[in-house]
Amino acid sequence: MTTARTKSLPSADAGPLAQRTPVLNALRSRKLWLAVLGWSIAGVIFFPIFWMVLTGFKTEAAAIAEPSLIFSPTLDSYAAVQGRADYFKFAMNSVVVAFGSTLAALLIAIPSAYSMAFLPTKRTKGTLLWMLSTKMLPPVGVLVPIYLLFRDVGLLDTRTGLTIVYTLMNLPIVVWMLYTFFKDLPKDILEAGRMDGASTFQEVLFLLLPLTLPGIASTGLLSVILSWNEAFWSLNLTSSQAAPLTAYIASFSSPEGLFWAKLSAASTMAIAPILVFGWLTQKQMVRGLTFGAVK
Amino acid sequence: MATLQLRNIVKQFDDTQVIKGVDLDVNDREFVVFVGPSGCGKSTLLRMIAGLESASSGDILIDGQRMNEVGPSDRGLAMVFQSYALYPHMTVEDNMGFSLRLAGVPKAERREKVREAARILQLDPLLDRKPKALSGGQRQRVAIGRAIVRNPSIFLFDEPLSNLDAALRVQMRIELARLHEELDATMIYVTHDQIEAMTMADKIVVLQGGVVEQVGSPMELYHHPRNRFVAGFIGSPKMNFVPVEVTEAGAEGVSVRLPGGESRTIPVDGSQLSAGTTLELGIRPEHLSLDDQGPMAGEIQVLERLGGQTSLYVRMGEQTVTLMADGDVAHRVHDRVRFGFAPDRAHLFDGDGLALPSLERHPLAGLGRQDNRASSSTSSMAGGQ
Predict the structure, then answer these.
(1) Sign of torsion, CA B267 B270 B276 B277?
(2) B253 backbone φψ class: left, alpha, beta (φ>0; ψ -120 to 50)
(3) DSSP label of A23
(4) What does the pLDDT read at residue A261?
(5) Record: contact B73-A202, CB cut-off 8 A
(6) A201: domain CATH number?
(7) Which of A189, A197, A210 is facing B73, going by the closest CB pair?
(8) Does residue A118 register a pLDDT over 50?
(9) Which residue of A196, A207, A213, A295 to mutate against B (max B Cβ within 10 Å)?
């Protein structure tokens, strides 16, 4: 049988093909299982958010009743929430602080990542690790000194104060990410620019930034999201004037016991802007986070 | 006018010295090639000339001006990188015009200069493309075009052809030689490929371990290598080295006993030598010939027929000798053959690897590629007579 097959060309061709079909089938079913697994994990992660949005449209009574998908939706909670605190004031604070701190972090991190990526010294690696190590320290450890410092210089409950803290908080991550993106850029291109007469500033502006824009964008997006979600510092350093949305949510959670529907409505409003923002920029995010890995 | 002088250039990285005191003169409009094995410091030397790397000590002079502290773009040089280093986000036209844009040249003038360079390199139809839409050879030409647009006094090339396939490399080699003629500029070219060096250079600088081994015209290096390293590096296939014993030495020539017992007198100055010393005889494969009366013999181990020529690898005692023979040679593997050489084609190297000076200089030893060009009419006349 085998010899006959190798002698006649068509059947020799058909042999491997016939064998390949089950392999293909196996591949296809593996893909299917992977898809099922992926959707399941996504579902588990997404479910609380989904439930929160749902609860926001329930009455307080329905919210603590037997969990159910069937209820008559109402905007009462939203009205109540808005009646008690001005959402837009908090949202504005969040936007200003998140984007302001991201911008500041990028402005500081781009030159530092540039020098570390293109002009490394013996201490570069150590510096990078040291920067990251500051993220290992629990923020509570520096809360009191920073609080006192802010009180003395009048930065408590100001957007500026919060922006400074967020900038410093995200700086290590931003520098690290930019460093890895910059490192992927061939040094030759910048040297060619230098031969062409570019100053360091022009080198960064005309060559480095346009070429690493996906990376810079995703770094910026991450920084915005991290700042948006930050609660520890915002709760401790702000009260009314500069309080962002995290403080806004928190204000619904404690004083008069738990009101699930109102809390859910507030939370939904707090995450809505960043959710939309993340949705619009997810392509950029994925592209940036896999930048260099896939070429 | 553009000349370059290097005076005792040293480059130190931490504890290692990669360039150990290089002196060099590059004349106006000369095509100089730095050649050497990888890690010999040739690229570092070029980068120091470009200003991308600083010299630890020594002077770099361009047109007599000390340039050590002058920035890369102010030295009046242009460099073509091994990786091409095109700006991926710019079109060919913007790539080539980038230096002019930085210099604040008005758009119309920029356009004109870029078109002019594109014409020389036949890049006109590609000006609107991005680098990733170009083939390797086209990218290379854009990189050269970017250099031309700057109208530099000296062009620097850092292994520009090493990323191209063999056929394209030959074509670009010819194009570069043509470009050198058309632009009439001084060019410094780094390569590890001795064929590129031989074919393009007016002057070759052979580097090894951060030291200049020899500077000279291609034919000088080929016919009068200063030492064993240069002799082995220049020429392909590699020169054969055979240990021999001196039987008689004098200023008129050195007689040596070859493996197999026969003696030959090589026309080199051996006045410092005494009989009984062991030397190395250097003889190029193309200068060995099959000869039934020849002084050396061995068994053919491998035989490579290239059509026009045949390479024979002949086992002679402890070592293998390479021999280039006629394409139609009838021998087979394991045949025993005798072979010989013309004594004036052979070189002798002493214990330190230094060549004993030849008594006569080869008539072509002074020729660079440019001289080849300049004298082509006279030589064709001579051929006609």
Answers:
(1) negative
(2) left
(3) H
(4) 85
(5) no
(6) 1.10.3720.10
(7) A197
(8) yes
(9) A196
B83: chain A residues, CB-CB within 8 Å? 186, 188
Please give the residue range of the domain that contains residue A115. Answer: 85-289
pLDDT at B368: 64
* Spatial contact of A189 and A123, defined as CB atoms under 8 Å apart: no
Query: DSSP label at A294?
Result: B
Cβ-defined contact of A195 to B78 (cutoff 8 Å): yes
Domain with CATH 2.40.50.100 in chain B: 239-349
**Contact assessment for residue B121 and residue B144, using Cβ atoms and an 8 Å cutoff:** yes
Which pLDDT does position A294 carry in this prediction?
A: 37
Q: What is the pLDDT of residue A291?
A: 53
Least confident of A20-34, A142-156, A179-193, B232-246: A20-34
For B239-349, CATH gives 2.40.50.100
How many percent of chain B have pLDDT more than 70? 95
Q: Is A295 on the interface with B (CB under 8 A)?
A: no
Q: Name chain A contacts of B89, Cβ cutoff 8 Å.
A: 210-211
Which residue carries 């290598």 as its tokens?
B225
- Mutation target for A interface from B15, B46, B89: give the one with most A CBs within 10 A: B89
**What pLDDT score does B245 carry?**
93
Question: Which chain A residue lies closest to B146 (C-alpha atoms)?
Answer: A196
Contact A234, A247 (CB under 8 A): yes
Q: Residue range A259-285: average pLDDT? A: 85
Chain A residues in contact with B149 (beta carbon < 8 A): none
The strand pairing partners of B243, in sequence order, are B280
Structurally, chain A folds into a number of domains equal to 1
- The string of DSSP codes covering A97-117 is HHHHHHHHHHHHHHHHHHHHH
Please report, as a single letter, which amino acid is at residue B294. Answer: G
For position A279, what pLDDT does the model report?
Answer: 85
Q: Is B67 on the interface with A (CB under 8 A)?
A: no
| Separation of alpha carbons B33 and B100, rounded Å | 28
Can you tell me the mean pLDDT for A30-48? 92
How close is the nearest chain A Cα to the Cα of B153, in Å?
A: 13
Point out the residues of chain B with pLDDT beneath 70.
1, 368-385
Q: Which residues of B touch A211 (CB under 8 A)?
A: 87-89
Q: Which CATH number is B4-231 given?
A: 3.40.50.300
* Cβ contacts of A191 on chain B, cutoff 8 Å: 52, 72, 79, 81, 85
Interface contact flag, B52 A194, Cβ < 8 Å? yes
Q: How far is A104 from chain B (nearest CA, A)?
A: 26
Is position A134 within any domain? yes
3-state SS, residue B304: strand
Please state, as a whole number, how many other Cβ atoms lie within 10 Å of the Cβ of residue B229.
Answer: 19
- The distance of A182 to chain B (nearest Cα, Å) reads 15
Residue A3 in domain: no
Please give the model's pTM, rounded to 2 decimal places: 0.80
Alpha-carbon distance of B86 to A207, in angstroms, equals 11
Does residue A14 carry a pLDDT above 50?
A: no
Q: Which of A195, A205, A207, A208 to mutate to test the interface with B (most CBs of B within 10 A)?
A: A195
Q: How confident is the model at residue A59 (pLDDT cuts 50, 70, 90)?
A: confident
Amino acid identity of residue B220, one-letter, is E
Q: Please determine, for the modelled complex, whether the ipTM score is greater than 0.90.
A: no
A260 located within any domain: yes
